[in-house]
Design a protein that fits this description.
Layout (H helix, E strand, L loop, with lengths): L2 H11 L4 E2 L2 H7 L13 E3 L4 H14 L3 E4 L16 E4 L6 E5 L4 E4 L5 H10 L2 E2 L12 H6 L7 H4 L6 E8 L4 E4 L13 H4 L7 E9 L1 E2 L4 E8 L4 H12 L4 E6 H11 L11 E8 L3 H16 L3 E6 L3 H12 L1 H5 L5 E6 L5 H15 L4 E7 L4 E7 L6 H21 L24 H14 L18
Parallel strand pairs: 2-4, 3-4
Antiparallel strand pairs: 1-2, 5-6, 6-10, 7-11, 8-9, 8-10, 12-14, 12-15, 13-14, 13-17, 16-18, 17-18
Length: 467
């Protein structure tokens, strides 16, 4: 990068907030993906919405691209800067600016960490319900930019459902203030929802107004050993027909085995089954517990469940959740090839069986780890790299497998990315879930908000117009 441009960046954010050393470029230029090498030209740390505006205007003036960077926990390469872009890291914009107990709303900067908002809500006797394994490091701006889901979607919905307002800087440097915390607002297009899930390609999120919920009462966890994956649908329907639940997750015996070995956690019960369901509900009193036990017993009588256990305390509930939540961290050492896919809930067992057979037939030596949010149709396919196979060969073979996996996704009318976005890694497969007409409309929207293509170019799709 030219020295004159580095000086211009420093004039906006301060000289000590522009980094060009190799270590910083490598750290801030990537996310959790490992398939694309980062190669940004500089990292900048704005401290205000106005500084973000100035940076975007400078990008237009000097014709360079910018990539937004939050907690860098993405799994699709959406925050990877691989083409000499300037990374705009939101780590400094990490303040909670305002709170209204009446509205149950909190105004945040985009760099607020998810867990930070969760703790703030808890301190106010409220609850921020969007939760996932990376909540301790992911940032709200990134969560909104990818419409993050997590473990409680079945009860509370996606991140989208909790964004009550936002401020964004478009690709031209214009500041838009959207919805302003209103519950009802029928004044034309709700542009807020265009920016949610747009992965920083339409605008930079510089402020968020997030809704909060009432705190749950005594979350209680069941872990059930399933007779088969097909049985999970009967178990889910029976629970939903008889009581409200806040989560319905699943994981395989192979996934459980890795977690027990790595984390030293005990098996939840004596019986080993191919698949497990984790169910959470609010223990609001004796009636709730009686209902849970009655459904559990019915599932046992029907043969859908072979064994199970229920938490008796908060600490036990947390330990049972670890059997599911610790999977990603545990298998990371095996360099997994990850796919985050979704189909209609009722189609999950058939879809999972078909994909499992496809992968196993082509690469019988690959270990397949399944887990996910079965209650909302989102499953995570993880293929573990054999020790004797180099990384490049492994990823090349997995990319070939992905074509068959996504062909199955298309047959089931599902999504190639349920909650991690498209980024760079899923871009070649976007047409498996989106029609040509839809993609053309998205490109037109990109042109409206970012005509010079300075914002996260090359993510989701390749824009026809170049800078």
């Amino acid at each position: 990068m030219q020295q004159s441009l580095l000086v211009a960046l420093a004039e906006i954010v301060g000289a000590d907030r522009v980094l060009t050393d190799a270590e910083s470029l490598a750290h801030y230029g990537k996310d959790w993906t490992r398939m694309i090498e980062p190669a940004p030209s500089a990292i900048v740390f704005p401290g205000s919405a106005e500084e973000v505006q100035a940076l975007v205007k400078l990008a237009n003036e000097h014709k360079f691209a910018v990539v937004p960077s939050g907690g860098r926990t993405g799994l699709s390469g959406g925050a990877v800067a691989s083409q000499g872009e300037v990374v705009i890291a939101f780590d400094r914009m990490n303040q909670i600016l305002d709170f209204s107990a009446v509205d149950r709303q909190v105004v945040c900067q985009p760099g607020v960490v998810t867990e930070q908002l969760q703790q703030f809500a808890e301190d106010k006797g409220l609850f921020y319900p969007v939760d996932f394994a990376s909540s301790g490091s992911s940032q709200l701006g990134g969560n909104v930019a990818t419409n993050a889901g997590g473990i409680k979607v079945i009860r509370y919905g996606l991140t989208r459902d909790w964004v009550m307002g936002m401020k964004v800087v478009t690709g031209t440097g214009e500041m838009l203030t959207l919805n302003q915390g209103l519950v009802k607002n029928a004044t034309g297009y709700d542009l807020r929802h265009l920016f949610i899930g747009s992965e920083g390609t339409l605008g930079m999120i510089v402020e968020l107004t997030m809704g909060l919920a009432a705190a749950p009462k005594d979350p209680t966890v069941l872990v059930l050993g399933l007779e088969s994956m097909e049985a999970s649908m009967s178990v889910l329907q029976t629970f939903q027909d008889n009581m409200p639940i806040t989560a319905f997750e699943f994981f395989s015996e192979k996934a459980l085995g890795h977690v027990m070995e790595e984390k030293g956690l005990p098996r939840p019960f004596e019986t080993a089954t191919d698949y497990y369901a984790l169910i959470e509900f609010e223990n609001t009193g004796e009636a709730a517990m009686d209902a849970a036990m009655a459904v559990f017993e019915k599932c046992m009588e029907e043969g859908w469940v072979l064994d199970g256990t229920m938490s008796q305390s908060t600490s036990q509930a947390e330990n049972l959740w670890r059997l599911r939540e610790d999977i990603s961290e545990t298998i990371s050492k095996f360099t997994p090839y990850k796919n985050d896919i979704s189909v209609q809930v009722s189609q999950v067992p058939a879809f999972l069986k078909e994909v499992d057979e496809v992968v196993s037939a082509q690469y019988p030596d690959f270990e397949i780890i399944w887990f996910g949010h079965i209650g909302d149709g989102n499953v995570h396919l993880n293929i573990l790299k054999p020790d004797d196979l180099d990384k490049d060969t492994f990823f090349k073979q997995c990319n070939e497998v992905s074509k068959d996996v996504f062909a199955a996704v298309k047959r089931f009318k599902g999504s190639v990315s349920a909650e991690h976005g498209v980024g760079l890694l899923k871009k070649p497969y976007l047409a498996y879930s989106r029609s040509e007409a839809e993609i053309a409309c998205m490109k037109q929207l990109k042109q409206v908000f970012d005509p010079a293509n300075v914002l996260n170019p090359g993510k989701i799709f390749d824009q026809d117009q170049k800078m």
